[in-house]
Amino acid sequence: MNFLTQLFASRSALPPMGRSRRGIELKSALEVERMRESGRIVATVLKEIAALARPGMSTADLDAYAEERIRAEGATPSFKGYHGFPASICACLNHEVVHGIPHKKVILREGDLLKVDTGAFKDGYHGDSCITIAIGRIKPDAAQLMKVAEAALYQGIEQMKPGNSLFDIAAAIEDFVTPHGYSVVDDFTGHGVGRNLHEPPAVFHTRTPDLPKVTLKAGMTLAIEPIINAGSKVTRTLRDRWMVVTADRRLSAQFEHTVLVTATGYEILTDRNLV
């Protein structure tokens, strides 16, 4: 789940639980096991929603399904009630960017791009992930945007290894997306995740002066979640104070994973291919 940048404060063998000098938690082996379980639940629910979503369904239908499945797994929805958010998923269509509240009157149609973001909290730890789903047959430009958005996420994840920095993640994403003629939204960031849904550090997806100077260490768990727009990166927030849309009303796509930095690289804790 992305959140407003301003709300963020600018562990093989894993070390005992602790904090880096910048207040970033390094997870113990036990904590990682618990995060694997939360991540598995999120991955399972998103995989099922991707198979379920079809024209004629409402985003409220998908939200009800997600909440029921998360609770059936012995977890609670991370998003529901978070800063007053009323649902278990964020659901955004086409030019909608983030934080969309599901509604029974929002009906999926053939050709839509649907973004579904959800989280699960179990045994004291959160998992967080987002996917973009093609509803039926979509136009080639929408399919290309989805392809680039998902590939951009993995470009960032590939930089997650001890000794690299948050700058390496941001630069890899920006340098991959820009040649395609798309833009990376920088109003929102990824984040640390663990005992809290949002923890330090803020994880930017473009080079920015605000980017924290953080060196990656084994045991860090980060949510990487670039938002890729077909046009301008400029966004605006609607009157409900939740939904964010592209200012030019062009398409937006997003993929997100919760990722562990290991001693030798990374592990994706919300990998849908493993469920």
Report on this model:
There is one protein chain. The protein has one domain: Creatine Amidinohydrolase, CATH 3.90.230.10. It contains 4 helices and 18 strands. The strands form 5 sheets. Strands 1, 10, 11, 12, 17 and 18 form a 6-stranded antiparallel sheet that branches. Strands 4, 5, 7 and 8 form a 4-stranded antiparallel sheet that branches.
Key descriptive features of the protein:
single chain, 275 residues, alpha+beta, Creatine Amidinohydrolase, six-stranded antiparallel beta sheet, four-stranded antiparallel beta sheet, 4 helices, globular
Topology of this structure?
Layout: E1 3-4, E2 18-19, E3 25-26, H1 29-52, H2 59-72, E4 76-77, E5 89-93, E6 96-98, E7 113-122, E8 125-134, H3 140-157, H4 166-177, E9 183-184, E10 188-192, E11 199-203, E12 221-224, E13 227-229, E14 235-237, E15 244-246, E16 252-254, E17 257-261, E18 266-268
Antiparallel strand pairs: 1-10, 2-3, 4-7, 5-7, 6-15, 7-8, 9-13, 10-11, 10-12, 12-17, 13-16, 14-15, 17-18
Helix pairs in contact: 1-2, 3-4
